[in-house]
Amino acid sequence: MKVITAAIIVVNYNNKKLTQNCLDSLKLVKNPIFKVFLVDNSAKSNQFDETIEQQYPFVKLLISESNIGFTGGNNLGIAYAKKNYVFDFLLLLNNDTIVDPDFLKILIRSYTQQPEIGAITPKIYFLHDKTAIWSIGGRINFWLGSSKSQFQHVKDNGQFKERLEVDYITGCCLMVSYDVLEKIGPLNNKFFAYYEDTDWSMKIKKLGLKLICEPSSKIWHVAGASTKKSSGGNSPIVWYLNLRNSLWFFKKYSSWYQKPSFWLVFIIKTSLILTYFLLKWKRDKIIACMKGIREGITERI
After folding, report:
1. Of all residues in the chain, what percent carry a pLDDT higher than 70?
2. Do 204 and 242 have their domain in common?
3. Helical (H) or strand (E) element with 242
4. Last residue of some domain: 166, 190, 221?
5. CA angle, 93 as apex, 181 and 110 as ends, to 5°?
6. Among candidate residues 245, 81, 108, 82, the one with its CA nearest the CA of residue 175
7. Distance from the CA of 240 to the CA of which of 35, 48, 104, 297 falls in 20 to 30 A?
C-alpha cells in the first residue's frame, strides 16, 4: 500500500470545467504529500477517462456506474483510499472550489497542534466575490430547526482572524484524521446530499471532540453548481432533499423538549413555502416538497 499524508475526495457531477479548475488549483499545492481520488458521478455520460491521471499525476480516477449522490460518491472514494493507501488525514473537497496553495499545510498543522480537534475547515469565500464569506463553519438552532453557515456574504475586512469552534462543518471542505474516520464511519448514504456533513459533525461532537474553522487556511467556492437550475434558483431535487433530510436530522438529534418548537416552526415555514409555490404554480416544486415532507416524517436515519 502507498503512503500519503492526505487523501482528498473530489466528486464530479456534470461539471467538468469546474472540476478541472479545482484540480488546476490543487496542482499548486506542493506539500504535504496527497492524492486526489476523483469520483466521476456523471453516470452514463462520464466526463473523464484515464487521461486525467496523465494530466494530473496526483489524481486517481474512480468512475461510478450511476449517480450515487454526494454521499455515495465520497464514500466510494473513501473506501478506495482506505483499501489501497495509508494516510493520516481525509479531506472532502467540493469540485467547484479553488484552493490556496497553502490551505492543506495550514489545516494539518492546526489539526495536529490541538488534540481536541475532531474536524477542521478553512475559511471559505465566494468565488465570484473573493472577499465575501461563504462559510466559516455553521451554527445549528435545534429550537428552530435551522442549520446555516455563519457570516455568509459578510465582507472579510480582517475581522475573522481567530480560530472558531463551530456547531458543524460543511462538506464543501472538511478534514478529519484517519483515527476519527474509523470511529465515525462513512457518510450516511441515505442522505444522498445535504445534511450528511451535519450528521457527521454531530457524530464527531459525540466523541467529545471539537469542530474548528482555521481562518488562515483559505479556499473559494462557486456554491450550488451541481444543483441550481439554469434558470436560477434551487431545483425541485434540492427542495425535496433539504426538507426530507432536515426532518431526519432534527428528529434524530433534537432533545424531546426542543421538538415542539421545531415542529411548530417547520409547519409554519413549509406552509409559507408551499403557498408561494402554489401562487406561482410551481407544480414540480410542490410535488418535490410534499414527497420530501412525507418521507421525512415516515422514515428515519
Report:
1. 96
2. no
3. helix 236-253
4. 221
5. 65
6. 108
7. 48
Please identify which residue in the block is written with the cell numbers 411548530. 264
pLDDT at 65: 87
* Contact of 133 with 176, CB cutoff 8 Å: no
Structural domain contains residue 105: yes
Do 13 and 38 reside in the same domain of the chain?
yes
Do 175 and 270 belong together in one domain? Answer: no
pLDDT by residue (tens digit) across 201-246?
999 999 999 999 999 999 999 985 555 544 446 899 999 999 999 9
The vertex-47 CA angle with 188 and 85, nearest 5°, equals 50
Q: Are residues 213 and 137 in contact, defined by beta-carbon separation less than 8 angstroms?
A: yes
- What pLDDT, on a 0 to 100 scale, did the predictor assign at position 224? 59
Is this structure's pTM higher than 0.90? Answer: yes
Does residue 61 sit in helix, strand or coil?
strand
- Between CA 301 and CA 297 the distance in angstroms is 11
Nearest to 149 by CA among 121, 180, 128: 121
Cβ atoms of 212 and 164 closer than 8 Å: yes
Domain that holds residue 213: 2-221
Distance CA 83, CA 77 (A): 10
Q: Kindly report the number of other CB atoms within 10 A of residue 210's CB atom.
A: 17
For 246-291, the pLDDT digits (tens) are: 999 999 999 999 999 999 999 999 999 999 999 999 999 999 999 9
Distance CA 212, CA 194 (A): 20
Instruction: Answer yes or no: are the C-beta atoms of 220 and 125 closer than 8 Å.
Output: yes
- What is the pLDDT, as a whole number, of residue 46? 74
